[in-house]
């Protein structure tokens, strides 16, 4: 039996029971198999569980949904940095460097418990949406982009984005899907979005950092600016400050730690 410190953190929110919850497992020198890591993520059953090991000049970081490993996850990276600073494993005077499947990612401490992430920007190409995807979302065909592994679809109004009721079974054959619109005129936000990733075992992700690596480049071209206040309009909801800097995106958010305990993992 090995014991691993475990935390559950709500990310991209300043209040409990909002934002996107992430599980965080902190290892020292323990090495588990990929099957064991996947089993832990399935047991935790959150949209992502992050696994961290000390490494030269920072930490090695991997993310798993309940069913698959993913190459990039914003909210679990934000939550990981928060836990490392809160527990004293990292100094708040310095950024934290994470070695990941998406290269080196850096978290910078900010004021008033804000944390800034330095992530890669994603750029897309125009595509025609498959008829089945439009039917699964319940929308008429509209222009869209495909960005590496996900569709980005703009709808005419925030109301349309908020009122979407996808058929998740029909959505499951498709890659990840971002649906977005400009925010209403009286809103403090520049744009809103939702993110569906049924193929990865999550019908709707509450708040998605990696989606905003796409949304930053999209809305920079549409709105002619590079700094945004964004809202992900899931049931839980979450707020992100987004800044595009060339081929990098700065994502800034807050966190609330809800659970601290120990994961007891059989070695056989």
TrEMBL record:
The active site is at 48. The keyword ATP-binding does not apply. Keywords: Isomerase. It holds the Pfam family PhzC-PhzF. GO terms for molecular function: isomerase activity. Gene3D superfamilies: Diaminopimelate Epimerase, Chain A, domain 1. GO terms for cellular component: cytoplasm. It comes from the Bacteria. InterPro entries: Phenazine_PhzF-like. Belongs to the PhzF family. PANTHER family: PHENAZINE BIOSYNTHESIS PROTEIN, PHENAZINE BIOSYNTHESIS-LIKE DOMAIN-CONTAINING PROTEIN. This is PhzF family phenazine biosynthesis isomerase. The lineage of its organism: Bacteria, Pseudomonadati, Bacteroidota, Cytophagia, Cytophagales.
């Amino acid at each position: 039996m090995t014991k691993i410190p475990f935390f559950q953190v709500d990310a991209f929110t300043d209040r409990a029971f909002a934002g996107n919850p992430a599980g965080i497992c902190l290892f020292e020198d323990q090495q588990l198999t990929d099957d064991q890591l996947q089993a832990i993520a399935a047991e935790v059953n959150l949209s992502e569980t992050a696994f961290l090991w000390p490494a030269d000049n920072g930490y090695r970081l991997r993310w798993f949904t309940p069913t698959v490993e993913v190459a990039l996850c914003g909210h679990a990276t934000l939550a990981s940095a928060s836990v490392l600073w809160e527990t004293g494993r990292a100094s708040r005077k310095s950024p934290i460097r994470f070695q990941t499947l998406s290269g080196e990612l850096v978290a910078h401490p900010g004021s008033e418990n804000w944390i800034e992430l330095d992530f890669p920007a994603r750029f897309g190409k125009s595509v025609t949406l498959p008829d089945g995807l439009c039917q699964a979302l319940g929308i008429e065909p509209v222009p869209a982009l495909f960005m590496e592994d996900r569709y980005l679809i703009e709808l005419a109004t925030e109301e349309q984005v908020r009122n979407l009721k996808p058929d998740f079974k029909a959505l499951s054959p498709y890659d990840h899907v971002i649906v977005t619109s400009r925010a209403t005129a009286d809103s403090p936000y520049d744009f809103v979005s939702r993110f569906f990733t049924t193929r990865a075992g999550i019908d709707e992700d509450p708040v998605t950092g990696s989606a905003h690596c796409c949304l930053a480049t999209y809305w920079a071209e549409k709105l002619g600016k590079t700094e945004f206040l964004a809202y992900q309009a899931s049931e839980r909801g979450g707020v992100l400050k987004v800044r595009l800097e060339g081929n990098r995106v700065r994502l800034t958010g807050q966190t609330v730690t809800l659970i601290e305990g120990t994961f007891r993992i059989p070695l056989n």
